[in-house]
Each structure stands twice: as C-alpha cells, then as structure tokens.
Write a structure and sequence with these properties.
- There is one protein chain.
- This protein is mainly α.
- 72% of the residues lie in helices and 0% in strands.
- The protein is built from 4 helices and no strands.
C-alpha cells in the first residue's frame, strides 16, 4: 500500500506543492458549500417559523373577532367583505377535529406545527 501511495505522490517539490494546493482548494470548497447549505436551511427554518406565527396570530385574531361579534351581525359582515372584494378565503371554525392526511415528518414541518400550536394556544381563549 505504501508503494502505491508513493506512486501517486509527485516526486518533485513543485508537484507536491501543486497537489497540496489543489487538495486545499477542494477541501475549502467542500467546507464552504457545507456552511452555505447549513445557513440556507437555517434561514428557511426561521422564515417558516415567522410566517407560521404571523398566520396563526392573524387567524386567532379573526376567530376572536367573529366570536365576539353578535351572531346576527356575522352574515352581514361576511357579505360586506364579499361585496368589497376583501375576502378570498372561507373561514370555518370547527368544534371537532378535521381529519387531514399527515404531513411528511421533517424538522421544518415539525417546527412550523409547533409554532402554530403555540401561537394558537396563547392567542385563543380556552
């Protein structure tokens, strides 16, 4: 094995320096790519958590608003929103769980689910 390794190494000092530089550049590239990918993944996680918290907080605020509104005014408000073009979404407050297919279990989806559950638990009345 030693003789095979010696055959791969250049005999001249210049050859060894060039080989060392090439290996160093390749190693720096691998480390740099790893750090960049790690930073992108971390940024995506933070962005997803911020977006999830914002959506959950807004949804909780909307639910609190409609729950506090007298029942006879709710259809009027929804119709006014539709007439003004301000509502593109249907909001349904269920008293029972809705069966949905589970999300693929990844660190990102679990982080988003945790943030939404935490935000709704703190924002909605018990």
């Amino acid at each position: 094995m030693r003789t095979r390794l010696r055959q791969l190494l250049p005999n001249s000092l210049q050859g060894r320096i060039v080989m060392l530089m090439a290996v160093s550049v390749a190693l720096a590239q691998v480390v740099g790519t790893y750090l960049w990918a790690h930073q992108i993944i971390h940024s995506a996680l933070i962005d997803a958590q911020v977006a999830a918290r914002s959506i959950a907080t807004n949804a909780a605020g909307t639910l609190r608003f409609f729950n506090d509104l007298p029942e006879q005014y709710r259809p009027i408000l929804v119709e006014q929103q539709r007439a003004m073009g301000g509502s593109r979404f249907l909001i349904s407050a269920n008293t029972r769980p809705v069966d949905l297919p589970p999300f693929e279990a990844t660190a990102l989806t679990q982080a988003v689910v945790d943030v939404v559950q935490e935000s709704l638990a703190t924002s909605l009345p018990k």
